[in-house]
Amino acid sequence: MRRSVLAVPLAVMVSPAWLFGAGTVSGKVTYTGTPAKQKTIDMSKEPSCAKQHATPITTETVVSGANNALGNVVVYVSAGAPDESSAPAQAVTFTQKGCQYIPHVLAMRTGQELKVVNDDQTSHNIHPLAKVNHEWNKSQPPGTPPLSEKFDKEEFVPVKCNVHPWMRGYFAVLKTSHYAITADNGSFSLPNLPPGKYTITAWQEDYGTQTQDVTVSGSETETVDFSFKAKLY
Amino acid sequence: MRGLMGKLFAVILVVIALASAIPIVTHTWYGSAIRLSPPPDISTHGHAIDEQLSETMIEAGLSFLAAQLVLALFVWKFADRKGDTQIRTFPGGAKVMVIAALVLVGSEILALGVLSQKAWANVYFKPAAPDALQIQAQAGQFAFYFRYPGSDGKFGALHPDKIDEGNSNFFGLDPANDVESRDDIVTGELAVPVNREVLLLMHAKDVGHSFYVRELRIQQDFVPGLDLSVHFTATTTGKYEIVCTQLCGLGHYNMKAYLNVMSQEDFDHWMKQKASEQ
Amino acid sequence: MSEVVALAAAEHSIGHDVAQHHAPPQGFIRKHIFSLDHKVIGKQYYALALVAVFIGMALSWVMRIHLVWPNAPIPGLRFLSKTGAPGGIVTPEYYLSLMTMHGTLMVFFVLTNAPFAAFGNYFLPIQIGAEDMAFPRFNMMSFWTTFLAFCILTAAFFVPDGPPISGWTSYAPLSAVGSDAGPGEGFGQTLWALSIFVFCIASLLGSLNFIATTLDLRTKGMTLSRMPICTWAWFITSCIALLAFAVLMPACLLLILDRVAGTSFFIPAGLVVSDRLQPHSGGSPLLWQHLFWFFGHPEVYIAILPAMGIVSHVLVNSMRRPLLSYRVVIYCMMAIGFLSYMVWGHHMFISGMNPFSSLLFSFPTLLITIPATIMTLIWLGSLYGSKLRITAASLFALGFISMFVSGGVSGFFLAQPSIDIYLHATTFVVGHFHMVMGVAAIFGIFAGTYFWFPKMTGRMMSEKLGKLHFWLTFVGTYCIFMPFHYLGLAGNVRRYAVLVDDYLIPLIPVHRFITIAALFTGAAQFIFLYNLIQSRFWGEAAPANPWECTSLEWSMPSPPPFDNFGGKHPVVYRDPYQYGVNGSKGDFVMQDSPEVVKA
């Protein structure tokens, strides 16, 4: 089951890039081998959600596309980025709808406001399993206002709902504003990078992380591709 | 009027006693269609429990009414009497009361105690038939999951450290290394064929839970660390709610699954469908 | 017969000349705060119970309102807890916290405190003719330790993770694994266990005191068989309490250790809670249940026996005649106390313990009906031919009989394991225990309050308001708790924060009826509170013996002087139930009156 994913980073900043010229790092993330079959989710215990899906949804652990493309991969500059300004004022939104997290992977800056919305008729219990950041666990009855939270440290945080065990999402809390999430065509683009040496990291929730170094000189586009080894089980 | 308060007490008590009896007798809430009695029994062992319940209701109901009415009568008659009336003693005094209690309650206890044993034994002392359909049930905050052994007829081993709910691995199976797990069928719904004995093998993933199906007249706690089981035979097709009755955390109220009793043909079809979804 | 002969013919009693002749207390702190006087301590327990019961009641209103109007914000609640009630809407975990605190406050700080510690402390020494309790310092400590326990418990409302959510029964491993089990299972749960641990210490001190006082400090002529029934009830209750709380205390300690010290008394291996494999092994959840209910069952008799004693005392006085048999009633109370230790497994019929044990526990559970029935029949039989005076106190005593029958009868169902398969954990159980504890025992407290208020304060309560309070409460509590039984028969499961299951939706109108009844009945309690406060400061002056009662407390001024009997030892000549006789003062003779009475 493919799902389209919000893949556009929200930060727009004033950077030295326009002074010195800004390059771009872009590429594709693919996999080799056979990924595990995505399992159908049985929502029979929550009829108000089950009826929102004409056909039952599947797990989203591996989102794959044509030509072995890998979606939902977070690609970001993990080293070498110029000093970032403070987190953008605009919040990112994490929605619970049809007993699913939308988006499945949500990227945000450290210190950026996160709004959690419950669009369902049932209570959800949002539990980010943070290890580095402060772990919290809050109920959100239907019809209550959005929760407003933020994370202060860089971390990939799995998110679960205790009430509906099949719900799984991730917060990619990043120090940098140079990040992208691949759509199911596997491609990403990191623009506005001033000339310099950078480390690019790709993170997939099941396959782990990979890094590559790249040098940007001027305003051309550098290509960096990632390939993950798929796991059958 | 002399003794007004006493008479008022008596009248109100009688009204309360009779009003309390109405929903028991009519099985509904006053003047409505809301059913206030156990739903029809769909099990093979349940009728003994229902009989027990009816017998107890009659005896308890009569005792309740008798006691409240006697209390009302005595307060009516003896409250705030004139100053010079004589005090009388209940004929027989305390001795009669002790004997009455021993005889009435004693016989009730014997009757119900003896009868009760059989109904209990049917559920707990009779072992499951050797060819009962074995289904595993796991209770964890806040859902029930069920596992069928698949075509090899064997359940793969459980590894709590491999539980990965985001990946639908609720039981902690290891198909990479355990061959028996590869064909196991995990579902959120308990489907059973009608008129076939089912042996439900129960274990808890995290804290205490309980398995309750009103129509089946079955309730059994899941206790972490203990492998427990219940067996039953469902006699009527349909969908019935399985609800958790042991307080297990914030989602306790929303912890349920459906028991789906189907014909053997429908059940086989369902199993094929579920196998393809694994 | 001369009085000397009469006295010689009486059974020899243990009268001690050694009394604690403490000097009158000086200073505000000694007189009213850290007082050694059992009467002040009794009033302090009563005041604590009063605060606890209004908090507990308010919690139940929030619970009931939330259940039937889940989308309506409750005004002001979001200030008490921002995470628990965002926008004033109760989250599921907050509902469970309110429920846990409601049960804990009511069972421990109201039902163990008021009928037993409050009235017992005040009246036991007086009724046996003593100057004070055997150990006044222990007595003071036991109140302040109870108060400390109360403070620790209420602190749980204000910790970030909130109060615990595991119910007053606090089953492991939910209560033992810590905050992985979810919101509400953080520090608040540890505070709960600590609070109850401290409460146990206080109860043990109190029980020791009651037992020693009853056995050793009875005045001349006060043989055991001349003690008022309520004194016997307090004495038997303290014997039960001594054993019961002695088991709960280590159980709470083990729970705390599992939570903070990494032990595994109640936690087996291999548990995965909130995606985390718990680092425990070897423990047993059933161990907690056994320890808890070994205390828990006697605890409910600790709650009801004093009420039975108070009700018997008030009834005899109101009926102007003794009960059909004093001895039988005492033996029944002892039998209930003894049997109460053999039935704890009836809370665990389907818990996974050996099903044969379930049958074994069922037998004494059914058997305990016998002494309870005997007592009820004796109360009823004593009403026959009596000259019953209707007062606020006697109305509550009569109401107690009605409620005790109602609650007892539903116990009959639950005592049978096969029926319990269907009714366990339904609201049928909730109806049952509220009828016996939440109503009958409370009616005992009310009866005691209306009866003894004049003695304790020197002022009369308003009888009019008292009667109004009775009518509203009597009808109101039936309206609240009878429907729980019907819902239970329909299989309505208890402890649900929201009613979402298919079979529950049609039952919601019944829940609405219960909520409205609860709100009205709760409002009626403010009549009682108003009456208490108004009478305390502006009530009519009370004579020494407004109810023409025979026991020793009525032979002293209202309120009694600090040393009760003015430094003298009263002498007791007869049992406390000489009514319907030609006494010099009327149709009764006081226990300490030496007059010779013609039958």
Output the keywords.
heterotrimer; A: 233 residues; mainly beta; 5-stranded mixed beta sheet; 4-stranded mixed beta sheet; 2 helices; 19 strands; 43% strand; globular; disordered N terminus; B: 278 residues; alpha+beta; Immunoglobulin-like; 3-stranded mixed beta sheet; 4 helices; elongated
Layout of helices and strands:
The complex is a heterotrimer of chains A (233), B (278) and C (599).
Chain A: H1 17-20, E1 23-32, H2 47-50, E2 63-65, E3 69-71, E4 74-79, E5 92-97, E6 100-102, E7 105-109, E8 114-118, E9 124-128, E10 138-140, E11 147-149, E12 155-161, E13 168-174, E14 179-181, E15 187-193, E16 196-204, E17 208-216, E18 221-223, E19 226-229
Parallel strand pairs in A: 1-18, 1-19, 5-8, 7-13
Antiparallel strand pairs in A: 1-15, 2-3, 4-14, 4-16, 5-6, 8-11, 9-10, 9-12, 12-13, 16-17
Chain B: H1 4-26, H2 46-78, H3 93-124, E1 133-140, E2 143-148, E3 185-187, E4 190-193, E5 197-204, E6 209-213, E7 218-222, E8 228-233, E9 238-243, E10 256-262, H4 264-277
Parallel strand pairs in B: 1-5, 4-10
Antiparallel strand pairs in B: 1-2, 2-3, 5-8, 6-7, 9-10
Helix pairs in contact in B: 1-2, 2-3
Chain C: H1 3-9, H2 27-33, H3 38-68, H4 77-80, H5 92-127, H6 136-155, H7 187-216, H8 229-260, E1 272-273, E2 276-277, H9 285-319, H10 326-339, H11 355-367, H12 369-383, H13 392-414, H14 417-423, H15 427-457, H16 463-489, H17 508-538
Helix pairs in contact in C: 3-5, 3-6, 3-17, 5-7, 5-8, 5-9, 5-15, 6-7, 7-8, 8-9, 8-10, 9-13, 9-15, 10-12, 12-13, 13-15, 13-16, 15-16, 16-17
